[in-house]
Model the fold of this input.
Amino acid sequence: MQNQQPSTLKEIRVHGTQNFPCAFYQTGTRIKGNIVKHHWHEEVELLYFSGGEFCLEVNMERFYISEECFYFINPGELHSINVEKNGGCVENAVVFHMDMLNSSYSLDQIQTNLIQPVQNGSIQFPRCLRKDEPAFEQVRTAYEEIQNAFSGSAYRGDYYDGEAVTDDITRQLFIKSALLRILAVLSANNLFEVTEKNHDRWIETIKTTLTYIQENYKEKIYIRDLAGLIGMNEQYFCRFFKKVIGRSPMEYVNEYRIKKAIHYLKESDLTVTEICLECGYNNLGNFLREFRKYTSTTPLQYRRHSLKETQ
Done:
């Protein structure tokens, strides 16, 4: 089962451009809830939290954030972000592929002792960098240079989902040099860590389970099928899933289905009944009850409200 590729959870989007695989993202909201669903990618992600209350989940471990800090997501790590409290919450991130920092010189020690070990998973970035740590100010200065190279000051203070990329060679030089400076600061402070592999099996297990749900949400999903995917009995699987994800398997299934329903309400002309069936519900009453549970409104009211916001 470990050889199965979790295609749905792996992001298929290109971060940046083909020639410059680096992008800047910002996500903001005024209401609590999930803002970044479970996913993983081959790139490194440097997350910056400037304010608000968040729960960042990485490889089955939860980190509660309420003050300014940086978090690093290593290649292949499963992660998601939830906003824990209503109010102004903004997080932004630089996502980049380590290949962009490679040298053409095969004996370059930066490549052989740092870049490649991060890529093959033998070493990893530190999980967190807090404001009171010696390396923080230098990393923040370099990070702000990257942000300004991508977007200037236009993104600051806004609440939206945005992505910035650049093909401008001068901006790319500033970004690349700032990324290398971040690596240098982390190295100077001995913050790179030797990777512990003992949780890999459980991480792949969760990737397999969530991928199955996201690929089969339109069909009937039974606990026995999910447990059978990873060779667990149903009772242990339910305990394991809730410990890792924070809710029961069926709660996750229903939440995912409602998120898909919200997408259809916003982006399609399907009727409520059609959306109900499309999202794996065979009973309209159950669908309406679950929809109200997660949104505190009805599908039609939600659609009308969404239309008003776009006008």
